[in-house]
Design brief:
6-phosphogluconate dehydrogenase C-terminal fold, prephenate dehydrogenase (NAD+) activity (chains A, B), about 10% strand, Chorismate Mutase Domain, subunit A, about 60% helix, Rossmann fold, homodimer, amino-acid biosynthesis (chains A, B), tyrosine biosynthesis (chains A, B), Chor_mut/prephenate_DH_T (chains A, B), chorismate mutase activity (chains A, B), alpha/beta
């Protein structure tokens, strides 16, 4: 490169360094201000996630950006990333306790990851939390005495047995579970306990930094009035509630979660048996191609029994998996016949059935693919 | 909320507004400075994407952030998003022309999306570009006269026929294609033209805002020295080159692209036949659950014949699809037998085969899921 150009580049890069340092200082200031907002909200018991306020703030910033010739999507993306940071740090402040009179909260399986997350949230909200884990059953009566709420958070396959094993609880104690199927655990809880009963399914992994914007599915059991405090408490933690019947919930989980896990498992098995060379495959990686691989590979970084439980425990698992097989064979027949027109016709049928959702899904995935591309460094 | 708290909140929000306005001004300044860097780079023909410089800049910022108690990942994510914006705007400046003596570049299928993108890039780099589309064949001789390079960018199923239809090109003219399979088109080009031949597969869709960090697969045909200028030109556009044989390429595409498309098609068909209610399913959506749905649904927002071409044109499509069927049946047998232990054993086998990649994929997808959650507004 010509020497003059090289000197000009160095000068520009120095200026960018200065801008970035100012940027860092602004970031620090913004995080501090938002933390102060959080502290007030917590004192008042206001949910940390305020969708309307967030939307109106973003709309304002977009308008301001446009006036300055800055892509409004850029400022929105940057602010959303900063908000994630702020939500995550809200946990440090603690939360308002909605039900000051509640007895101890006993987390059965509280040494597990999800149970541990809820133990932490209850503790941060000022409740007395007790853990009843595998080795604590000799001590169960003492732990459960005077309990205000009992949260069952154990692997799916043991949930019903654990519920049956519980000693008689106080009649006004709330019994709830966090299992990812809902019909069987809810029935078991209603049978085991005559008092308030609630089925919850937190739709997120235990490693989330915050509950902000996450969804908790609510399946009512018995005596809704007795657990309104908990639903309010969960919203203060930042989550959105979605009410459904246990069977609606289980069917939805079967259609998306269990069958997607199952087919991803088959795909992983397929890649292994075809002697695929992952390292070589990644060399070709477009963002979407890499994401497709990641959606399969991510499964295998996790506990097999977790997936086995989710797949095997679904009431309709076998029937649905057989249906899927029939559809695969149908599509394979098109391929065998070289029937491209038939394939396109079926494709168009499904596309019509998806309707506007197809484009919506395409847009959502496009945004994620851009982020995936941003983080490349190779 | 208490009046005092409410007043305190308003005051804090005013301060956040002020910070955000300063942030916008900094953004504007940074984008302008980076644009100046881009202008110098273009003049000098330096690639717009400089991995090492980018990595060292990010490392510096992370250290500075840590010193200020700011999460280093936060500043890295924000800067990467800003860099995407800068890369996208580089196209406005134009690129250095590597081969000043080249005759016109003729894009066969230049009215299509991908052909159009390359027509734009060549034009921005100062080459004379001519489009030869479906209706221009009567005029083909005139369009191709004196051509320095002919780029074939038509649907897979027509690629070979189009190559055969080309009139005799100048002996030193470069003939290349952009098709997503490589063995058949490359063979057809080598047969049709005695001069320089090159097979490329741009691993991205035509809607990318910039080629920065994208991958272009290079399958050498004949007379590499004659097209070094083009490989250099593509790198100036920001892309990374990956060399592979045509058969390596086709096998990789079959294993990931074609079969993933095929199984996603089957999944869409399955959801339709099971009368899934997408709107209801989305109510339950965790980020991963939503992404799983999106990876299926996104397919159906696109052209069926594009997917039919990709799936049906792969040389081993049928054999691989049959292999997959066998593995599905094997997994289904485990489900039918209620053999959870067998499932876990198979799972562990595949996990071992994935090795460290499984965790890497999990981390990558976790980051994308966080971004997906950031953009929720419901």
């Amino acid at each position: 490169m010509a020497e003059q150009s090289s000197r000009a580049l160095d000068a520009l890069r120095d200026k960018i360094d200065v801008v970035d340092k100012e940027l860092l200082q602004l970031l620090r200031r913004r995080l501090d201000l938002v933390a102060e907002v959080g502290a007030i909200k917590h004192k008042e018991g206001v949910p940390i996630y305020a969708p309307k306020r967030e939307a109106s703030m973003l709309a304002k910033r977009r308008t301001e950006a446009e006036a300055m010739g800055v892509n409004p999507q850029l400022i929105e993306d940057l602010l959303r990333r900063m908000m994630r940071e702020s939500y995550a740090s809200e946990n440090d402040v603690g939360f308002k306790r909605v039900n000051p009179d509640l007895g101890p909260v006993v987390i059965v399986g509280g040494a597990g990851k999800l149970g541990g997350l809820f133990a932490q949230l209850f503790t941060l909200s000022g409740y007395e939390v007790r853990i009843l884990d595998q080795d604590d059953w000799d001590n169960a009566d003492a732990l459960l005495k005077d309990a205000g709420a009992v949260v069952v958070s154990v692997p799916i396959e043991r949930t019903e047995a654990v519920i049956q094993r519980l000693p008689q609880l106080n009649p006004d104690c709330l019994l709830l579970d966090l299992t990812s199927i809902k019909q069987a655990p809810l029935a078991a809880m209603l049978k085991a306990h005559p008092g308030p009963v609630l089925g919850l399914h937190p739709m997120f992994g235990p490693d989330v930094a915050s509950l902000a914007k996450q969804v908790v599915v609510v399946c009512h059991g018995r005596d809704e009035a007795a657990y309104q405090w908990l639903l309010q408490q969960i919203q203060i933690w930042g989550a959105r509630l979605h009410e459904a019947t246990a069977s609606e919930h289980d069917q939805a989980m079967q259609l998306v979660q269990a069958m997607r896990h199952f087919t991803a498992f088959v795909y992983g098995l397929h890649l292994k048996r075809e002697h695929a060379d992952i390292e070589q495959l990644l060399q070709f990686s477009s963002p979407i191609y890499r994401l497709e691989l990641a959606m399969v590979g991510r499964l295998f970084a996790q506990d097999p029994s977790l997936y086995a439980d989710i797949i095997f425990a679904q009431p309709d698992a076998l029937a649905r998996a057989r249906h899927y097989l029939a559809r695969y064979q149908e599509a394979l027949a098109l391929l065998e016949a070289g029937d491209k027109a038939g394939f396109c016709a079926q494709f168009a049928d499904v596309a019509e059935w998806f309707g506007d959702f197809a484009q919506q899904f395409r847009n959502e995935s496009a945004n994620m693919l851009m982020v995936a591309n941003d983080s490349r460094s190779g």
